[in-house]
Amino acid sequence: MGRVTAPSPVTPAPPADLPGTLGELRAAGHAYRTVKQELRDNLLARMRSGADRFPGIVGYDDTVLPEVERALLAGHDMVLLGERGQGKTRLIRSLVGLLDEWTPVIAGSVLNEHPMHPLTPGSRALVAEAGDALPVAWLHRSMRYGEKLATPDTSVGDLIGDVDPIRIAQGRTLGDPETIHFGLVPRTNRGIFAVNELPDLAERIQVALLNVLEERDIQVRGYQLRLPLDLFLVASANPEDYTNRGRIITPLKDRFGAEVRTHYPVDLDLELALIRQEADLVAEVPEHVLEVLARFARAVRESPSVDPRSGVSARFAIAAAETVAAAALRRAGLLAADTPEGVRPEAPVARVGDAVPVTSTLRGKVEFESGEEGREVEILGHLLRTATAETFRARLAGLDLSGFTALVEGDAVIETGELVGSAELLRQVGTVPGLAKALDRLGLGDAPSPEQAAAGVEFVLEGLHLTRRLGKDVTDSGRTRYGGRA
């Protein structure tokens, strides 16, 4: 699973030593293979060498990827079924890496026709006329991927093709195949074509894909034209859409060889690995804060107040981590204005308190049950506190933290907050017995920076409050005061 990254639009130049004509291609021993044979051979080669078959895909090694590999080895077109944010599109796009880096095509061919396997009457005539002198171009694998997000207004012309009125106006006859403007599917011939959210495609448009999947050809407005397309077709669908809002028509479902179910990360470590891989962090976010956010995302996903049919995207935790990092950067920027000359400015390091605003900024990513209207922020706030308490127990269980509770005996308080600098927070705390062990348990090392130490101190104070060992009060100015008994 992961954030979707499209294949790079920047195509590298082909190596200079590749054959330039059909004769040179034959002399080099090149053999024509279908796309599915190519995928199978290259997947097997990676298996035998131990290379990473699906770079960047996290959490599917023992569940989804074996099913995908079986589908590829069997030569089956497939449908990926899963809730939003489970990395379906990322997985589909990663299949491009299993294609040959360069493949020969007839120069100028709209359908990427192989020089040894021409499809259109024009290309067959060209091969017959030029023979071994036929010019050969080379297509990079990044250009052999086509994708369409299914929408209700998608037409047959978009996917398959239609008559080009301009070519008719130029004097060509209506029955001439050269008058066809091919759609996305035939233009991805000898490549991988993906349809995202297939159930959203109108049923009459889905019918147009039937021949592509079974007979491997296309029909355009009654033309007597048979083009045996060479494609690997893969689609994605949300199970909720699959059964209710839209559906995949039965004949089309029957033509897909494999149906693979995706899922959210099955354990906390995978959720954390996904956040680390995908989040673009503008500030340092300590491990214990990332763990809070990972537990938070899992708690939201499992909450009875959240609609389970909609799911909670992996993008929720990723966006939460990026928001927390941005809060740390904002604090560092604002505090820099008050930093005396010659004093080291505040470095941006996230604290657990920076996660509080996430409950309001990310609530739009969650579909709540109908009876919870108006309580969204309250529910998310409760789940965030629960995740913080769980992380506190997991990280600091059994550690003597009496030195922290002793800091606030009597009327003493420790004040922190979004705009409280690390130096100010550490000055209030001073020397605390057990602080070094706590910071070590939090993964902050033997010599943490002041900002890292402040992040650890704030987490301990919040954890003690959530486990009912410290009182907590939030002032009108937004500062947080820890003190007294809960």
Can you walk me through this structure?
The protein is α/β, with parallel strands linked by helices. The chain has 21 helices and twelve strands. The strands form four sheets. The protein has a five-stranded parallel β-sheet with strand order 4-7-8-1-9. The longest helix has 23 residues, at 314-336. The radius of gyration is 29 Å and the shape is elongated. The chain starts with 21 loop residues before the first helix and ends with a strand. Residues 2-8 have low confidence and may be disordered.
Write the layout of secondary structure elements.
Blueprint: H1 22-27, H2 35-49, H3 64-74, E1 78-81, H4 88-94, E2 102-106, H5 121-130, E3 136-140, E4 145-149, H6 156-159, E5 161-163, H7 165-169, E6 180-182, H8 184-187, E7 191-196, H9 203-206, H10 210-213, E8 231-237, H11 239-245, H12 250-255, E9 258-261, H13 268-278, H14 287-302, H15 314-336, H16 358-361, H17 376-396, H18 402-406, E10 414-416, H19 422-429, H20 435-441, H21 450-466, E11 472-474, E12 480-482
Parallel strand pairs: 1-8, 1-9, 4-7, 7-8
Antiparallel strand pairs: 2-3, 5-6, 10-12, 11-12
